[in-house]
């Protein structure tokens, strides 16, 4: 392939990942009826890892895969991702309260605030992971990776499945290891700290792959990509300081922490890649070869939300089940300044529809760039 291999990188963000599906729906429409898979390399983290795995399962027919993914996100409800019934939330609240007040007696730490076992059931039901290897063997897919963060080692692992040419890698605090992907890898990659429980894989517990992910684009490059499309889950531009109305609520602090986990690493990695590309483009290919420089410029297209997703979440906060609203109200998530935390948890059709529509419009607003990237 003269233009090299194109990769799709999908970042984390809980319910915010609905935006990615809207962008993919626009790409499907821009491609028209062209057959094949435009992204032979797929990389995902957290909810983006789930979307990437779904595309890998259906990589023999990209258009059909996007349609299936869009149908699932359009019909999402909170209780398909985590339990939101009153008895479960009451039990969880009592367990956390007991741990804080009497932990020195019972010596038992709660695993998470929310029980996401419904998500596991959904993934097992809708994804046939054996099709990933079938697509690789048939040439529809080059490689797919899902990232997770090890709580013991402190390393960010990219669990990948691909052709034999893709070799394991090890860099500072990041490792690429071959495996047969399954539901455990997706559950580990999307285990948002404190909210969802960690997952044991082999001998270590893993949490959300956005934690300690110093180079989100790195797995795509290690797996052979020369062109990378990144779909973010939040605005990457600096919006400046705003006047504080009062001391930040727990929800505001938690939302800020999650935004740091999900967004900051990507911003820094993109800046680093732009600097490297600028340096490499100062020399032509012959000069790079003569100097023994093996690096090559990486073509990158980034599509991220043009609007604040926490503001959109705030408009849909009433769609949450009443017991969950009661719980979140206690930490300030139902107030305007707590909408950032809400934006990661609001798996309800009104919100996911709005994000998908925004992603669709943002991608079409950059149609010429998308067409150039896809070589249309």
Give an overview in words.
The mean pLDDT is 88. The chain starts with a strand and ends with a helix. Helix 2 packs across helix 3 (62-74) and helix 9 (250-281) packs across helix 13 (339-345). It contains 15 helices and 10 strands. Strands 1, 2, 3, 4, 5, 6, 7, 8, 9 and 10 form a 10-stranded mixed beta sheet that branches. It has helices at residues 18-31, 47-57, 62-74, 86-106, 117-126, 130-138, 183-189, 218-222, 250-281, 285-290, 309-315, 322-329, 339-345, 349-365, 367-373, and strands spanning 5-10, 41-45, 143-150, 156-162, 169-171, 174-178, 199-201, 204-208, 225-231, 299-303. Strand 3 and strand 4 form a beta hairpin. It is α/β, with parallel strands linked by helices and 376 residues long.
Short description:
With 376 residues, this protein is an alpha/beta fold. It is built from 15 helices and ten strands.
Task: Quickly list its features.
single chain, 376 residues, alpha/beta, 10 strands, globular
**Total number of strands:** 10
**What sort of overall outline do the alpha carbons produce when their principal axes are compared?**
globular
Helix fraction bin = 40-55%
Radius of gyration: 21 Å
Question: Which consecutive residue ranges, at least 5 long each, have pLDDT under 50?
Answer: none
